[in-house]
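C-alpha cells for chain A. Residues wanted.
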C-alpha cells in the first residue's frame, strides 16, 4: 500500500497551491477556512467511527451470520504466520455475503445505514461519489483489505479480494480469479496450490487450472462445508471450462486499477482541507512588507 507516500505528496501539493491561492482570494478566504475546518472535523470524527455497522448482527438469517468479531478477524489478518486455509476460514466466519437491496435492509437509507455507500466520516470524496457514480460507488467495494474486512460484508469478489490481498501482504502468492458467476482465490503455499472460496469457507488443494478442467473435484470439499447438493451442482457448472478460459477471469488487474483511485481519495480527504485552510493563514507577502516600509 502506497497511501502514506501519496498522502504526503498530496499534502505538499495542497500547501503549494494553497499558498498560490492566497494571491487571488479576498473575503472568500473565511469561507474557505470554514470549509477546511468542517472537513478536518469530519475526518477526525472518522478516526473514532468504525466501518462496521452496529446493526450488522441483526441483518441476516441464522444460516448467514458472523461468528467472528472484527477484533478477532483483525488479529488473524495481521498474523504473518497465518496459512491460506486458516485465513480463508476466518474471512468466511468474520464477514457476510451481502450487497443486495432486498431483505432487512430494503429501507430507503440502506446504503448509508449499513455503509454500502462509504460514510462521509470515512471518506467524504467516496461518499460524494456514491451519489454521482451509482454503478461503482453507491455500493462500494473496497480495495484495501482491512477496510473491506472491517465493514464486514460484500459480494464474493469483495471477500476473495480480502483473502488474496492479505496473503500477498504476508508474502504468499495469490490472485483473485473470476469465474462465470463466482469469484475465488488461487494461492500457492509451501509448494501446494489452493483454490480458496471464502464465500463458503472451502479450501480445495488443487490448482485453479485443474479444478476448471475437472469441476467434479470440488464436490467433496463443498459437501464438507455443508453446501447443498443443488448449490454444488450450480458451482460445478460455474467452475466448468466453458466461459472461463484456462483459469477464468483475472480480477487482479481490475483491483490494481481501482487501488490507486482509492488511495488517492484517502490522500485527498486530508489534502483538500489543508488546501482550503492555507489562504486564511496570516502569511505576509513581500509586497505587503514593502508597502508597510
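Reply:
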Amino acid at each position: 500500500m502506497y497511501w502514506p507516500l501519496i498522502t504526503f505528496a498530496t499534502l505538499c501539493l495542497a500547501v503549494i497551491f494553497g499558498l498560490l491561492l492566497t494571491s487571488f482570494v479576498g473575503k472568500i478566504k473565511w469561507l474557505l477556512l470554514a470549509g477546511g475546518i468542517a472537513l478536518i472535523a469530519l475526518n477526525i470524527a472518522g478516526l473514532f467511527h468504525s466501518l462496521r455497522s452496529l446493526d450488522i448482527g441483526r441483518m441476516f438469517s441464522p444460516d448467514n451470520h458472523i461468528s467472528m468479531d472484527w477484533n478477532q478477524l483483525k488479529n488473524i489478518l495481521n498474523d504473518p504466520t497465518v496459512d491460506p486455509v486458516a485465513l480463508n476460514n476466518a474471512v468466511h466466519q468474520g464477514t457476510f455475503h451481502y450487497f443486495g437491496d432486498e431483505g432487512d435492509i430494503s429501507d430507503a437509507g440502506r446504503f448509508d445505514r449499513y455503509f454500502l455507500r462509504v460514510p462521509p466520516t470515512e471518506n467524504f470524496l467516496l461518499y460524494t461519489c456514491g451519489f454521482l457514480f451509482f454503478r461503482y460507488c453507491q455500493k462500494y467495494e473496497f480495495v484495501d483489505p482491512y477496510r473491506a474486512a472491517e465493514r464486514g460484508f460484500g459480494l464474493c469478489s469483495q471477500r476473495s479480494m480480502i483473502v488474496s490481498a492479505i496473503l500477498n501482504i504476508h508474502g504468499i502468492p495469490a490472485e483473485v480469479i473470476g469465474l462465470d458467476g463466482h469469484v475465488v482465490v488461487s494461492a500457492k503455499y509451501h509448494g501446494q496450490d489452493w483454490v480458496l472460496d471464502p464465500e463458503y469457507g472451502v479450501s480445495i488443494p488443487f490448482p485453479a487450472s485443474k479444478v476448471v478442467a475437472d469441476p467434479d473435484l470440488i464436490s467433496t470439499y463443498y459437501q464438507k462445508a455443508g453446501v447443498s447438493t443443488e448449490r454444488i451442482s450450480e458451482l460445478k457448472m460455474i467452475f466448468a471450462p466453458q466461459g472461463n478460459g484456462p483459469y477464468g477471469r483475472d480480477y487482479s488487474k481490475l483491483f490494481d486499477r481501482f487501488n490507486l483511485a482509492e488511495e488517492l481519495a484517502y490522500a485527498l480527504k486530508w489534502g483538500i482541507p489543508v488546501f482550503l485552510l492555507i489562504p486564511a493563514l496570516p502569511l505576509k507577502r513581500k509586497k505587503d512588507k514593502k508597502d508597510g516600509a
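The CA atoms of residues 12 and 186 lie 40 Å apart. Confidence is low (pLDDT under 50) at residues 102-106, 285-293.
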